[in-house]
Amino acid sequence: MKSRISFSVLLAVLLAIFSCSKEEEVTPKDGPYKVIAPVNPSPKGDRLFGINLSTSTNGFFASFDTAKKAGIQIVELNLPWTMIETSEGNYADPDGLLSATYFYGENNIKVGLSLAVINTVKWEIPEYLVGIAVNSQQFIDAYNAMVDWVIASMPKNVDLEFISIGNEVDLVLSTDEDWADYTDFYSATANHIQTNYSGIKVGVKTTVMEGLFTTKKTKVQLINNYSDVVMLNYYPQNHQFQVLDTSIVHAHFADIVTAFPTKDIWMTELGYQSGSNLCASSELKQAHFYHNMFQAWDTQKEHIKLVLINWLFDQSPQLIEEWKEYYGNDPALVEYLSTLGLLNYDGTYKSAWLQVLEETKVRGW
């Protein structure tokens, strides 16, 4: 999923530093929920678990304290290239977002960066590179220079776990030539990071439902020959944004592992909306999906090494209005974007949050 998401979330960190916060409420809006007891859960082991930190009306710090209850270890920040390189060779820390990751370092939370040359629905390249071939040396050198600047600008206390070179690139790349050119670009820029920053995992975020599980499968597999880890975004739904059965995650995880039997797999975004009007879901379905997801993850724990849930809270009405301008105003899409949170925007719990708390607790997160 989606552009500007992590940008807006981390911006809330800066604003919240000067604001007060309060505790979240504890009763799901749809009434009491009976948590499903995990059966034979596997210890977390070397797996990484995170929830991307959207904020509630209660402010950032209350939201962060809520997320810590689930034992989060990692968050992601998605930054389009155009937000960083404002003109040729001139870079800026957009609204201080890179500096603000100091907070995560102080709290022992790892950080991943998506430095998006493609961001879900469009290219995000500086104006001076428009029309330049993506696999040209000029384009590659420009991206590498931006990456060098970003890494040098990160606070020293931050554990930078990964960089994704693009976000959901399969949604933009269409022709064989597009894929070939981007794969050339990706192999060169991935090699630059792997050679110069050996502690940072490198990947390229593609989708499961629109990429790996379609005729694009071979292209997704081929580009990941150059990846340290396979990065996948997973939202089990159809083209009308209606959710699939909550148990389908078992088969999907198995199919994903079959597609990449020799590489670690990271679910860099994973979500299941609760919207009922157009998305055919509910808070109960959302909770049941997460119960199934943790079971499926246990089954594939030797292969799937990271899950990052989108989102902690449903997004603010203001942010949803911004996304309508970026992605379009399809009512089903809007409901999907508006109901991915484990909790409501007003701070009240959804049933999914109670289930996730139980799933993480019994596994040692």
Give a written overview of the molecule.
The chain has 365 residues and is an alpha/beta fold. The chain has one domain: TIM Barrel. The chain is built from 14 helices and 12 strands. An 8-stranded parallel beta sheet has the order 1-12-11-10-9-8-5-2. It has a two-stranded antiparallel sheet with strand order 3-4. Strands 6-7 form a two-stranded antiparallel ribbon. Strand 3 and strand 4 form a beta hairpin. Helix 6 (137-153) packs across helix 7, helix 10 (248-259) packs parallel to helix 11 and helix 11 packs parallel to helix 14. The model is unreliable at 2-25 (pLDDT under 50).
Keywords:
alpha/beta, disordered N terminus, two-stranded antiparallel sheet, 365 residues, 12 strands, eight-stranded parallel sheet, TIM Barrel
The main pleated sheet reads as: 8 strands, parallel
Instruction: Report, as a whole number of angstroms, the end-to-end distance.
Output: 25 Å
CATH architecture: Alpha-Beta Barrel
Count of individual domains: 1
Strand order of the largest sheet: 1-12-11-10-9-8-5-2
- Gyration radius (Cα, Å) is 19 Å
Provide the helix percentage: 25-40%
Number of strands: 12
Give, in order, the helices and strands: HEHEHEEHHEEEHEHEHHEHEHEHHH
Query: What is the arithmetic mean of pLDDT?
Result: 93
Structural class by secondary-structure content? alpha/beta
- Measured by DSSP, the beta-strand proportion falls in 15-25%
